[in-house]
Design goal:
10 helices; alpha/beta; homodimer; 15 strands; 6-stranded mixed β-sheet
């Protein structure tokens, strides 16, 4: 082993646990990943799961900082939501100490936005935004189970909007008449594009979803194209509604996994937005965890 | 027993089988209903299921006419789709003889609409439209698992649009994070109205669905209100998109069950359409089956 860790950071979501080991300069020296999201770990098993995955990183008892669904009611310890507008100092001040025999530990707060028109929350994405807060104003899109569109203005998170895109796709695939129709097949870019274009041209999302079935019944779509078409309809609807809300002004950036960012970039290009840079979600999480941890020195 | 039946009609859908016994004047003298939709009856069991439910109605071997999903690929015998525009004569000409030892029998065709922008099909609703075809031009809304908006012009079905509303609600309730959050409770008209109003004001349906969760997390909605709120969001989105497509001109009529028509009428009223008469779906099915059968005399 080299030098001892100066921080263990965790992006601990509903379906996945990703750990980062930092050196004293804030560089990530190692990463570990496990399908040990809070939905997979039995209640009360969070400490054991973290200890097992972190292993010898825990030597020397470095501080531990967790973000994501682990701070939800179903997680290890419920932490508050910081209401918008929320900047780095607000989020650092809302870190919640976590009692654990593994050492000094904290869980990050989430962010909420409550307006007359809508309630919104996020947990984990706020940490990924921290490195971007210092930069240009704009909108950050974080695709996933519950995709987020996050407005950054003047160094603060000022608004957010969630879409059920990923969960809707998975649920319809597993438990609907559309899933019963799907045949396995390779990703089909043409069927995906067709779905995106349908949604960009038509606001009736719950109709376009179902139309996948009629396309097959009438012979215009093959059963092994249905998954890609439905993915296109759902991502296309999110891009349509997200762009409508954020308007043509603000720059847009994607933060997430390479695969999902590729699909979203494709859909955004079909909507006329080709100027969308991409940032790795893991890198953004590590960056945000390190930033948040700086306020903990000596805490 | 009174006089022998002159026709046995069946509205045989995915989840339900409803039988009508007609006298020689076309009056319904008896009805029977069973949860024996084509998804419940094992393959090959359709004849036995029909015989068991019809019972002594079969004495004298009256003609039998079936409509609905029973004519789909998963049904008893696949019948064609008649493309729009489709009138009563087109549908009568497309009746498909059904070989069965129960007597002379036919299954109705479905209706399809294939445009560059969209594929649409229906089975069963076309029969319910027949009695209305003779009347005023307009749009008929048939709420359900896959709701239909059907355009009637000049005595023909000229266009249709399906919405996944009912299946989406049931799937999300049984298999999503929203369902996990729901607590049982009485129907909540205020929560339903709130969901409808959200959808009428905002096209981002897949975001509004998920916002139900944040409303609970932030304390503005109780867990036993989530089902009504989600129902409002989904029905509201359908009404918003359906009205947008049909425009302010054509009269609208509801055809379906009393419970669903009540919810749709409420949502339409919130959208400014208070002039929406209601027709019982069972009555419309019986009426349509009798009309279709008249072409079969002596066949």
């Amino acid at each position: 082993m080299g030098e001892a860790a100066s921080l263990i950071g965790a992006d601990w979501g509903n379906t996945n646990l990703r750990l980062f080991c930092f050196d004293a300069a804030g560089r990530v020296t190692a990463e570990k990943n496990a399908p040990q999201g809070i939905l997979q770990v039995p209640g009360g098993g969070f400490e054991a799961a973290l200890e097992a995955l972190a292993g010898d990183w825990l030597e020397g008892s470095p501080p531990i900082l967790l973000c994501g669904a682990i701070g939800s009611r179903q997680g290890w310890l419920e932490t508050p939501y910081v209401p918008c507008p929320a900047g780095e100092a607000d989020l650092a001040a809302a870190l919640t100490p976590l009692p654990t025999r593994l050492g000094r530990a904290w869980i990050a707060a989430g962010v909420s936005a409550l307006t007359l028109e809508r309630a919104e929350t996020m947990r984990g994405e706020e940490t990924k935004m921290l490195g971007l807060l210092a930069g240009q104003d704009g909108v950050v899109v974080s695709p996933g189970t519950h995709s987020k569109w996050v407005r950054l203005e003047g160094g603060r998170i000022t608004a957010l909007r969630s879409f059920m895109t990923g969960e809707l796709f998975a649920t319809l695939k597993a438990h609907s008449i559309l899933g019963a129709l799907m045949m396995p097949g390779p990703d089909d870019p043409d069927a995906f594009d067709l779905g995106v274009l349908r949604s960009l041209a038509d606001p009736a999302t719950t109709s376009l979803m179902l139309a996948a079935r009629a396309e097959v019944l009438l012979g215009r779509l093959a059963p092994d194209q249905v998954a890609s078409f439905l993915s296109g309809v759902l991502i296309g609807a999110e891009v349509r509604d997200g762009l409508l809300e954020c308007g043509p002004g603000p720059p847009i950036r994607l933060v997430g996994s390479a695969g999902l960012m590729g699909l979203y970039a494709r859909a955004m290009a079909l909507a006329g937005r080709t100027d969308v840079p991409q940032t790795s979600g893991d890198q953004a999480a590590a960056d945000g965890l390190w930033r948040l941890s700086r306020g903990l020195v000596g805490a």
